[in-house]
């Protein structure tokens, strides 16, 4: 029985289609028009207006920092949208590999591993989506509620659009508020669905390595097939066939890692760079006066950015650790009594497994916990530098 691994990405695919970045294998003309209008309106125009806003901002550091918080996030969203637009064929190839025969478990233990991975991916999306949606509505609607309840001035939720005159901003305050609120909601959906999709791919890589671990430990287990005379099949020949399949499986997992890296390498680099900048800017903003509720928002936002880079790094480390441990897993089998050909193939597998699998960001760093520590150190170093320049 085949396990359709990509089924756990159905919800992401529906949102990708709504967000105009996933037409499927074949795009209709009407969807092509919809995609161009949607992305132009809520991504390119949105980021463009945000960019030119910086030129007209008053030369006041706290105001400048407040706008930069969301601008870095929008730059990350732009990279994710471009990834799906430009790498659609490779993303389809990723889905095809997950459904390929070699990635299908052939025993009960392997099926349990894949089912757990699928269940985790579904739960992960629900958690990310619930937290993101609740925080997004809280931020976007708080100013509007205060405006109608207490009569305070309605502040735009993302940036002030300082290139517009104050009279024009006051006249268009409700349309601008609606545009920014809808835009930031769509950007939140891009972040949630792309991030959980990428994280799901990492989880499936780990699942395949766990299946390989089980196969390697059982590679010499006897599967006796008695013929009419009661003679059993050649166990050495059978073991050689099993270890050859494991070598091919490991090679396919390595190719899958490279394919995922080709698609998401630039996105990972941009996301980690922007998250580092946001952490630095948040630390800088903490040193300036602000209301208590704004400090609470900064703390939550900075924590979210830290988790944004910690979780992929954690799973990147698990991929490297799992792949390197395969060289030890195979020694748990009964290899000493096997044929010379089996031992030769065993050495071949061990040599290949000595180089752990990894996924890099922009060909500059690998997803790993040491990379996370380095990024956090860099963010703090930039903060101390800016603090000294300020003083």
From TrEMBL:
<comment type="function">
    <text>Odorant receptor which mediates acceptance or avoidance behavior, depending on its substrates. The odorant receptor repertoire encodes a large collection of odor stimuli that vary widely in identity, intensity, and duration. May form a complex with Orco to form odorant-sensing units, providing sensitive and prolonged odorant signaling and calcium permeability.</text>
</comment>
<feature type="transmembrane region" description="Helical">
    <location>
        <begin position="68"/>
        <end position="87"/>
    </location>
</feature>
<feature type="transmembrane region" description="Helical">
    <location>
        <begin position="196"/>
        <end position="214"/>
    </location>
</feature>
<dbReference type="InterPro" id="IPR004117">
    <property type="entry name" value="7tm6_olfct_rcpt"/>
</dbReference>
<feature type="transmembrane region" description="Helical">
    <location>
        <begin position="263"/>
        <end position="288"/>
    </location>
</feature>
<keyword id="KW-1133">Transmembrane helix</keyword>
<feature type="transmembrane region" description="Helical">
    <location>
        <begin position="364"/>
        <end position="383"/>
    </location>
</feature>
<dbReference type="GO" id="GO:0005549">
    <property type="term" value="F:odorant binding"/>
</dbReference>
<keyword id="KW-0552">Olfaction</keyword>
<keyword id="KW-0807">Transducer</keyword>
<keyword id="KW-0472">Membrane</keyword>
<dbReference type="GO" id="GO:0004984">
    <property type="term" value="F:olfactory receptor activity"/>
</dbReference>
<feature type="transmembrane region" description="Helical">
    <location>
        <begin position="37"/>
        <end position="56"/>
    </location>
</feature>
<protein>
    <recommendedName>
        <fullName>Odorant receptor</fullName>
    </recommendedName>
</protein>
<keyword id="KW-0716">Sensory transduction</keyword>
<comment type="similarity">
    <text>Belongs to the insect chemoreceptor superfamily. Heteromeric odorant receptor channel (TC 1.A.69) family. Or2a subfamily.</text>
</comment>
<feature type="transmembrane region" description="Helical">
    <location>
        <begin position="294"/>
        <end position="315"/>
    </location>
</feature>
<dbReference type="GO" id="GO:0007165">
    <property type="term" value="P:signal transduction"/>
</dbReference>
<keyword id="KW-0675">Receptor</keyword>
<dbReference type="GO" id="GO:0005886">
    <property type="term" value="C:plasma membrane"/>
</dbReference>
<keyword id="KW-0812">Transmembrane</keyword>
<comment type="subunit">
    <text>Interacts with Orco. Complexes exist early in the endomembrane system in olfactory sensory neurons (OSNs), coupling these complexes to the conserved ciliary trafficking pathway.</text>
</comment>
<dbReference type="Pfam" id="PF02949">
    <property type="entry name" value="7tm_6"/>
</dbReference>
């Amino acid at each position: 029985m085949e396990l359709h691994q990509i089924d756990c990405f159905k919800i992401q695919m529906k949102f990708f289609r709504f967000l105009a970045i996933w037409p499927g294998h074949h795009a209709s003309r009407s969807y092509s028009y919809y995609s161009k209008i949607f992305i132009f309106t809520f991504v390119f125009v949105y980021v463009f207006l945000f960019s030119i806003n910086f030129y007209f901002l008053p030369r006041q550091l706290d105001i400048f920092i407040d706008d930069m918080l969301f601008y870095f996030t929008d730059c990350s969203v732009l990279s994710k949208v471009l990834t799906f637009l430009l790498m659609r064929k490779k993303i389809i190839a990723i889905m095809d590999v997950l459904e390929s025969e070699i990635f299908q478990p052939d025993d009960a233990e392997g099926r349990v591993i894949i089912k757990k991975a699928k269940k985790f991916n579904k739960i992960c999306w629900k958690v990310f989506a619930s937290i993101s949606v609740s925080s997004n509505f809280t931020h976007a609607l708080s100013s509007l509620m205060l405006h109608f309840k207490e009569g305070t001035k309605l502040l735009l939720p993302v940036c002030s659009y300082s290139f517009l005159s104050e009279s024009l901003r006051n006249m268009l305050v409700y349309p601008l508020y609606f545009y920014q609120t809808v835009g930031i909601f769509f950007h939140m959906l891009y972040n949630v669905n792309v991030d959980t999709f990428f994280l799901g791919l990492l989880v499936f890589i780990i699942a395949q390595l766990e299946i390989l671990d089980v196969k390697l430990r059982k590679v010499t287990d006897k599967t006796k097939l008695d013929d009419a005379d009661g003679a059993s099949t050649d166990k050495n020949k059978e073991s050689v066939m099993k270890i050859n399949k494991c070598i091919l499986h490991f090679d396919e997992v390595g190719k899958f890692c490279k394919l995922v890296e080709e698609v998401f390498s630039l996105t990972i680099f941009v996301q980690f760079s922007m998250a580092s900048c946001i952490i630095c800017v948040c630390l800088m903003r903490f040193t300036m006066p602000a209301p208590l509720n704004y400090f609470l928002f900064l703390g939550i936002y900075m924590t979210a950015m830290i988790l944004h880079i910690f979780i992929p790094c954690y799973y990147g480390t698990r991929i490297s650790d799992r792949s390197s441990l395969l060289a030890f897993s195979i020694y748990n089998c009964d290899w000493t009594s096997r044929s010379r050909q089996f031992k030769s193939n065993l050495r071949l597998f061990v040599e290949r497994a000595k180089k752990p699998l990894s996924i890099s960001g922009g060909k500059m760093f690998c997803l790993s916990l040491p990379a996370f520590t380095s990024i956090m150190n860099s963010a703090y170093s930039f903060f101390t530098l800016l603090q000294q320049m300020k003083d």
